[in-house]
């Protein structure tokens, strides 16, 4: 039996991060969003664009690299945004759209 919390119930079974560590990873994303998220845009059902203040670049790159290690289905890339901005583009296969929805909801919750 899996005991997922409402905060991590969108995390897919394909994730290799130990279940006990998942709430910590979600908290790391929440902290990154609080610290530097400027905007969230859906670029399609399976694509998300997150714009950050460039001051969080090192943290964002490190966290995304670790996340890609346990959820290899994530496609991600960084681009320069406007002045002082960093853009993270995230994509998932069609079967993992719920995961992207969960990430988008957490990000949008911070901006609300």
Description:
Strand 1 (37-44) and strand 2 (47-53) form a beta hairpin. The protein has a domain at 37-111: Alpha-Beta Plaits (2-Layer Sandwich), CATH 3.30.70.860. By secondary structure, the chain is an alpha+beta fold. The longest helix has 15 residues, at 22-36. Helix 1 runs antiparallel to helix 2 (57-70) and helix 1 (22-36) packs across helix 3 (97-111). The chain has helices spanning 22-36, 57-70, 97-111, and strands spanning 37-44, 47-53, 75-80, 85-91. The protein has a four-stranded antiparallel sheet. Mean pLDDT is 85; it is low at 1-6.
On the 0 to 100 scale, the average pLDDT is 85
Beta-strand percentage?
25-35%
Radius of gyration based on Cα positions: 13 Å
Terminal CA distance: 34 Å
- Extract low-pLDDT stretches: 1-6
Fold-level CATH name of the domain at 37-111: Alpha-Beta Plaits
Structural class comes to alpha+beta
Give the % helix. Answer: 25-40%
Query: Per the principal axes of the C-alpha atoms, what is the gross shape?
Result: globular
Strand order of the largest sheet: 1-2-4-3
Q: What is the number of strand segments?
A: 4
Number of helices: 3
